[in-house]
Hints:
Elements: E1 27-31, E2 38-42, E3 55-59, E4 61-63, E5 67-72, E6 78-88, E7 91-97, E8 107-110, E9 115-122, E10 128-133, H1 138-145, E11 171-174, H2 186-194, E12 198-204, E13 227-231, H3 233-244, E14 249-252, H4 254-267, E15 273-277, E16 292-296, H5 303-312, H6 314-326, E17 337-340
Parallel strand pairs: 1-17, 3-12, 3-14, 4-11, 14-16
Antiparallel strand pairs: 1-2, 5-6, 5-8, 6-7, 7-10, 8-9, 9-10, 12-13, 13-15, 16-17
Helix pairs in contact: 5-6
Amino acid sequence: MKKSDYFYDLPEHLIAQKPIEPRNSSRMMKIDRKTGEVWHNHFYNLCDNLKKGDLLVLNNSRVLPARLYGKKEGSTSAIEFLLLEQKEDKIWEIICKPGKKAKVGAKFAFGGDKLIAEVIEVKDDGNRVVRFSCDDNFYTVLDEIGQMPLPPYITEKLENKERYQTVYSKELGSSAAPTAGLHFTSEMLDEIKEKGIDVAYITLHVGLGTFRPVKEEDIANHKMHSEHYSISKETADKINYTKQNGGRVIAVGTTTCRTLESVAKSYGGIIEMDGYTDIFIYPGYEFKVIDGLITNFHLPESTLIMLVSAFMGYENTMNAYKIAVEEKYRFFSFGDSMLII
């Protein structure tokens, strides 16, 4: 298929700029993945659309306040860092702007002098590898002076950092939030368990490569960046038990979906595993694990809308997005939700 097949016209005012309060008051479009039939609801009624014996699988990765603003040492020149991936203790691959200031050996200060960075490598793609130094714990300093790496389409300032975290976030390491989970409240998770619906967690640290634009017109030529994931024995056992007993495995978010499908594709099923995935799911892919998907409304021509299309069909997907625009759903990271079953 072609990249242009996934274009849709989105009025700018439908891009959500702020998280809705409370979290679970967002709208929820429910879609039958086989027929394409659509229902309109709210996320706080999710439990009414699940069954006893179902299993929700959520990504418990926690977002780093990975955007840093500082100055070149001994200068007033401003610099912006975005942390991408930890290589070693206090050594990170980063994106920086403007890049011309960040040559090997250049030093930068953030938060006054609370955090110092030295460029130790310039990579072929323009990213830098830097070594940080600080007097206190690195993550404590980062939490104090770093800002959430909100996507560029969100132009309003986020007042509360925790609103770009899920209520169950635990494992620090993402460059962006697994946004399908932002709709959950702690009370909802309790309600879900009380109904006999089980919950399990995986970890996939979301890298910015997930959101890298598809440049190839033939989508099969697009290459995904690699991201680290982890599946515990407890989660693997819950998934296998659910499948064996006729329950539905419902992935909360495309990151969870990609983790589960990647492991099943590589190992023939779900097992305890720690590794990296660069799986790209688009139409033609045969799903091996998930029976349902909770996700947000994604950017035109993105790998994420292609994944959704693989799961519920191209025509159903584009029709659902057409309806969402007509019904003025809120789009992208802080936007409304889809339940596809």
